[in-house]
Design a protein that fits this description.
This protein is of the alpha+beta class and 739 residues long. Among the domains are: 38-210, 2-Layer Sandwich (Aldehyde Oxidoreductase, domain 4), CATH 3.30.365.10; 221-287 and 338-428, Aldehyde oxidase/xanthine dehydrogenase, molybdopterin binding domain (Aldehyde Oxidoreductase, domain 4, 2-Layer Sandwich); 556-739, Aldehyde Oxidoreductase, domain 4 (2-Layer Sandwich). 28% of the residues lie in helices and 22% in strands. It contains 19 helices and 25 strands. The strands form six sheets. Strands 10-11-8-18-15-16-17 form a seven-stranded mixed β-sheet, with helices on both faces. A five-stranded mixed β-sheet has the order 1-25-24-23-22, sandwiched between helices. Helix 3 packs parallel to helix 4, helix 13 (523-541) runs parallel beside helix 18 and helix 17 packs across helix 18. It is globular and about 80 Å long. The two termini are 33 Å apart. GO terms for molecular function: oxidoreductase activity.
């Protein structure tokens, strides 16, 4: 169990002062490879070769070249644990380099809770293969059969005489660069694990706590200049005029850059660029079809969408029509911004025939390819170096700021740093799109669900670059067309439950008023909110316990296990019975929710206890209970941290967060107009039960808990007050409208 006080202590709680470590990068030649002092073997990037994944230095230090990146989820530590386990070395002897397109394996982007799910097996295979080759080499060197050798602490040892040993660094095979990864390599059994499944302190935290960690925002290059991009007031606005003379006499001013709708100021120093961006006179014309955020759902219903059927069983419409107990409702979720605490940044050094871009992207290779297309260079001549930036858990402004820096560096033939401001991040990061879900269902005479009809209306939840320059914000401002992909809006529209008569469909809509893209959980957050809230409504309609109704329609044993576990750790029946629900101004309620992040993600069951002030409308979540099954657990401490963070973030999204805009400008541009959860509003208790399954592959743990928060709160509010909340966020105004 973690209390609010403990959570504050773990997070540092109070910062007295800051120091900002500026740093210079090491060699930036695109031809840079890991050679020489680190290992005498050449470096491959072919995932079929061991050297693409690993290098082993003469001193025994091991480097993993991961294509995935650290976003604050602890994957750097978890990946080091995988390496340490299979090579029988300490975590301290493993360095994990991440997201550098010149040396890393292209593993795709770091999103969708797929890093450990997709990395565990290939990393372990590469390490197990490397161990096998090292043992073979040691067998020759020691003249001892392989069957009489074992590995420990970076040495191959004679099992009967452990003092007789050779270090890994002394028996690296000469053909290391071309040694293939054996897909049939024998991996360690779970019963033999010494590192996997054990709590290991985060590799990245000491420097972050000490204030010495170098973020992208701290990067400085020789001869670097600073830029600010002046973004339009609203999506779809068109540039009319720029008064260059309005900033010509400012200190440190270098130039104004104007091309199509791309406007920027470039100055010698950071705050000179800030001043110039505020002083520059720019005129825009607004789009004629702009709408206000209050009209989102009316606009969505009027759109000509394209319907896709996701699941069909029996005849849900007929079953609904003939049912005596039936219900038809609509759920809504708004546009939301990522709200990265630190605005995005990008640094680029573009030469005539090559470029290096430093970025906090989630997808090094995809963003590299898109930027290469944007500046008209072959992707092979562009190197993207990932450097940690602001946390995002989705597609924030990192890719766009990096691409803007590349465009400006190419234009001015100098290294350029683009730092977004708070209004840029809130106003122009891609948004988690608004969604509307219509659900109809009915209950039969035995209290079971006998019909379920579900229709979600949504735009795509992805506009990541994926190699397409038009998907980048500067690409759009330069007149390039995005490449639309329908993705994510249907995630978790299909439930874990079995209904005899069921229809689930998605109605795909155009992009809408704001640029949509991935926010943590994508459409699964809204779909789980609708599904789990509606099932609770049917439980009330049938006068059944919400947990029992869920169990009655489940066959998935892992789903059943987490639901039963959260019922136990929350003391569900007693807590519900003891909740103060009548007579008082402030009433208590207890709600439940269950979800699995599809496809094949973690199972999560949650119980929330909430208090509702019926006069003010304020909702406070006081206690949270989570049962979590993500298969094999690599680092239980890291997993608990992710669950705690996921709960807090989803509480904020559920209770407070909504982007507002009118026909003239974005209105949610700071923390006052887009409030988030405060430390004082955290639950007093977050209790977590981890269901470890060593016989199952590990899957991502970052997103799944977010799916259960909104419905668990909504269901708790109903239990407390009898009020159904069907639109997030659950603000005081929203409650009072329905009370």
């Amino acid at each position: 169990m973690t209390s609010r006080r403990q959570l504050l202590k773990m997070g540092g709680g109070l910062a007295i002062s800051f120091s900002f470590p500026l740093f210079m990068p090491r060699s930036i030649s695109p031809a840079y490879a890991v050679t020489g002092s680190e290992t005498e073997a050449p470096k491959s990037q072919d995932a079929g070769h061991i050297s693409a994944w690993l290098s082993i230095a003469r001193n025994g230090a091991v480097t993993l070249y991961a294509g995935k990146v650290e976003l604050g989820t602890g994957v750097q530590t978890a990946l080091a644990q995988l390496v340490a386990e299979e090579l029988d070395i300490s975590v301290a002897s493993v360095t994990v380099t991440m997201g550098d397109t010149a040396i890393a394996v292209d593993q795709g982007g770091t999103f969708g809770s797929m890093t450990i799910k997709n990395s565990a097996l290939p990393v372990r295979r590469a390490c197990a293969t490397a161990r096998m080759f090292l043992v073979k080499q040691a067998s020759n060197a020691l003249a001892v059969p392989i069957s009489q050798l074992s590995t420990r602490d970076g040495y191959v040892r004679v099992t009967s005489n452990p003092q007789r040993a050779v270090a890994y660094g002394d028996v690296i095979p000469p053909a290391w660069a071309t040694l293939p990864v054996d897909k049939e390599a024998t991996l360690k059994r779970a019963s033999a694990f010494n590192v996997i499944g054990k709590p290991v302190q985060r590799i990245d935290l000491p420097e972050k706590v000490a204030g010495t960690h170098a973020y992208l925002q701290n990067l400085r290059l020789p001869g670097m200049v600073h830029a600010r991009v002046i973004h339009p007031p609203l999506s779809g606005a068109t540039l009319i005029d720029v008064d260059r003379n309005s900033v010509a006499d400012l200190p440190g001013f270098i130039a104004v850059f104007v091309k199509h709708n791309f406007v920027a100021v470039v100055c010698e120093q950071e705050f000179q660029a800030v001043s110039a961006s505020r002083t520059l006179v720019v005129k825009w014309t607004l789009p004629q079809d702009s709408i206000e955020s209050s009209a989102i759902y009316d606009t969505m219903r009027a759109e000509q969408g394209e319907t896709e059927e996701l699941r069909q069983a029996g005849d849900a419409s007929h079953a609904f029509d003939k049912a005596s107990k039936r219900l038809s409702v609509t759920y809504r979720t708004p546009y939301q911004t990522h709200g990265s605490i630190g605005p995005s940044c990008g640094v680029a050094d573009v030469r005539n025939d090559s470029a290096v871009v430093w970025s906090a992207t989630q997808s090094s290779f995809g963003t590299r390819d898109a930027i290469a297309a944007l500046i008209n260079l072959p992707a092979s001549q562009v190197r993207l170096v990932w450097v940690e930036g602001s946390g995002c858990y989705g597609h924030n402004g990192a890719d766009d700021a990096s691409a803007e820096a590349a465009v400006l560096s190419q234009a001015f033939k100098r290294p350029v740093r683009v730092q977004w401001m708070r209004h840029d991040e809130h106003g122009w990061d891609p948004k988690g799109p608004a969604m509307e879900i219509q659900v109809k269902g009915s209950i039969d005479a035995t209290g079971r669900v006998d019909s379920w009809a579900y229709l979600v209306s949504t735009p795509t939840h992805i506009s990541r670059p994926f190699g397409n320059a038009g998907n980048l914000l500067p690409g759009r401002m330069l007149g390039l067309s995005p490449k639309p992909i329908r993705y994510g809006g249907d995630d978790c529209a299909r439930t874990l439950y079995h209904f005899t008569d069921e229809r689930v469909a998605v109605r795909w809509l155009p992009d809408g008023a704001l640029r949509p893209s991935a926010m943590r959980g994508l459409g699964a957050v809204a779909n789980a909110f609708a599904n789990e809230s509606f099932l609770d409504e049917l439980a009330s309609l049938s006068s059944r316990d919400p947990v029992e109704l869920r169990l009655a329609h489940l066959s998935d044993t892992r789903a059943i296990a987490v639901l039963r576990e959260v019922r136990a750790i929350s003391n569900w029946a007693t807590r519900r019975a003891n909740a103060n629900r009548r007579g008082a101004t402030v009433r208590e309620g207890v709600g439940v929710a269950l979800a699995q992040l599809e496809p094949g993600g973690a199972y999560v069951a949650m119980v929330c206890q909430a208090s509702v002030d019926t006069h003010s409308g304020e909702i406070r979540v006081t206690r949270v209970f989570v049962a979590h099954d993500c298969g094999l657990i690599v680092n239980p401490d890291g997993l608990r941290n992710q669950i705690q963070g996921g709960v807090v973030q989803a509480l904020s999204r559920s209770l407070k967060e909504e982007v507002h805009f009118d026909g003239k400008a974005m209105l949610s541009l700071d923390w006052t107009s887009y409030p988030i959860l405060r430390f004082s509003e955290l639950p007093s208790e977050i209790t977590i039960s981890l269901l470890n399954r060593p016989d199952q592959p590990p899957v991502g743990a970052g997103e799944p808990v977010a799916l259960t928060v909104a419905p668990a709160i909504s269901n708790a509010v109903f239990h407390a007050t009898g009020v159904r909340l069907r639109k997030t966020p659950f603000t005081p105004a929203e409650f009072k409208t329905n009370y």
